[in-house]
Amino acid sequence: MTTILVTGGAGYIGSHACKVLRKAGYTPVTYDNLSTGWADAVKFGPFEQGDLMDRARLDEVFAKHKPAAVMHFAAFSQVGEAMREPGKYWRNNVAGSLTLIEAAVEAGCLNFVFSSTCATYGDQDGVVLDENSAQMPLNAYGASKRAIEDILHDFQASHGLQSVIFRYFNVAGADPDAEVGEFHQPETHLIPLMLDAIDGKRPALTVFGTDYPTPDGTCIRDYVHVMDLVDAHVLGVKWLTDGKGSRAFNLGTGTGFSVREVIDHSRSVTNREVPFEIGPRREGDAVCLVSGSSRAKTELGWTPQRSTLEIMIADAWRWHQTGHYDR
Predict the structure, then answer these.
(1) pTM
(2) How high is the pLDDT of residue 186?
(3) By CB distance 3.0 to 4.6 Å, which of 67, 74, 149, 283 could disulfide with 8?
(4) CA atoms lying within 13 Å on the CB side of residue 274
(5) What is the rounded CA–CA span in Å between residue 73 and residue 230?
(6) How far is CA 27 from the centre of its chain?
(7) What pLDDT does 78 receive?
(8) Which residue in 31, 89, 141, 168 is the catalytic one?
(9) CA-CA distance, 116 to 298, in Å (whole number)?
(10) Rounded to an integer, what distance in angstroms lies between the CA atom of residue 139 and that of residue 120?
(11) Domains within the chain, CATH numbers bracketed
């Protein structure tokens, strides 16, 4: 079985990717320092604990497993924190990724699937964003991801490293079998925060700003189911191993929903009220982020199967009710 090194494989998206890789016939090797990931989420292949900044450990793992490709998820990803502590994001995300890229090239692993973000585009007045849109990040999170994209381009020119870059929109939902799911400490994502509020695990959901220039005053985002997202990553591995070369793809649905609309859908899916309160805007939040994902559909053959709000919330609710990982 072909081995794929999955950095951040104990995290939310990485653990789902490992499940789908295993189902597709690959051996996913999780590399994670467990600073934000969960050992209980590593269920689908070998686990190698280590940090991205530890070059000797990375070299050891590459030599041991000889992966055909790297799938790189490991990163800090909280916008609010990135606004307060930009150095943390530049140091971890960029320096860590550079160390990983250098280790991969030295090991002769020249296929690299990178977890980037729509935050590289910044706030562009609510236009549908495609891969040719200008990248103007508003915060250190988006800027760090954009910098890693540039590093990958440089290593292609110098060492022949081939990369598929996926710029995600808002990832939501959970494994329909509830084997893995979304659980962060602290939690910052809308749907799990909302489910916590519905379930009484927090007093109320905070809606950050109701004075945005949108129909109901709340931010609009494009939500994509985590299982659809990781399906695209498996297609990205095949794209690279088939020798199709480097390419960037947006991953979203092309449809945006406001925070209030997500609350309304959650009420109908769970048959429970959503307690919420209004808070101030968060610095660094864009008004509207909606994906143009036609390239992924036409070139990769990627078609989202579960990316409706109803399914994403229902799958997340099912996971939410099973309990969470233990440290």
Answers:
(1) 0.93
(2) 80
(3) 74
(4) 25
(5) 11
(6) 20
(7) 78
(8) 141
(9) 20
(10) 9
(11) 3-172+224-251 (3.40.50.720), 190-221+254-320 (3.90.25.10)
